[in-house]
Design brief:
This protein has helices at 14-23, 28-35, 39-47, 54-79, 92-98, 107-120, and strands at 85-88, 125-128. By secondary structure, the protein is mainly alpha-helical. It has one domain: Orthogonal Bundle (Putative cytoplasmic protein), CATH 1.10.3100.10. This is Transcriptional regulator.
């Protein structure tokens, strides 16, 4: 009897990698640095020229989980507010100088999370953390501003 096996599907296609990276607000440069790979390798994976390594897939899943947790924290902070407000980072330097749990991520990571919250919470006011409008707003880190 012939043993016919269907090969296991690739854990992540190049298209899925690119879509996920973009949803997370990450540039190819940031992600390549984070993964400690050449940016060209990342481009090849996203283009489907090379398979996405399993270790990279695992790290992308971890990043997705961290990002989803950030979205939940931001959304949860809005629940207690009569006038929902969020703050986000203007630049990567702002994130780095503030420290905290998001210091290792680019500002675009946080803005992407805010954008996901806005899909479900239209009308939420958003401002940059540097106080472009002089208001204090929820930022999901428990300090209220």
């Amino acid at each position: 009897m012939t043993d016919v096996r269907t090969p296991a599907p690739d854990p992540m296609t190049g298209a899925a990698l690119r879509c996920t990276r973009e949803r997370l607000g990450l540039t190819t440069r940031w992600l390549a640095d984070h993964l400690d790979v050449n940016e060209r390798s990342l481009h090849r994976w996203e283009a489907g020229v090379r398979r996405v390594p399993r270790g990279v897939c695992a790290e992308i899943e971890r990043l997705q989980t961290c990002h989803d947790e950030l979205v939940q924290r931001l959304d949860g902070a809005l629940s207690a507010m009569s006038e929902p407000r969020l703050v986000t980072w203007r630049t990567d330097a702002d994130v780095s100088s503030a420290g905290g749990p998001e210091a290792g991520y680019p500002a675009s990571w946080h803005r992407a999370a805010v954008a996901q919250v806005l899909v479900h919470r239209p009308g939420t006011r958003v401002a940059y953390r540097d106080g472009e409008d002089g208001e204090r707003s929820a930022d999901g880190d428990g300090d209220g501003g």
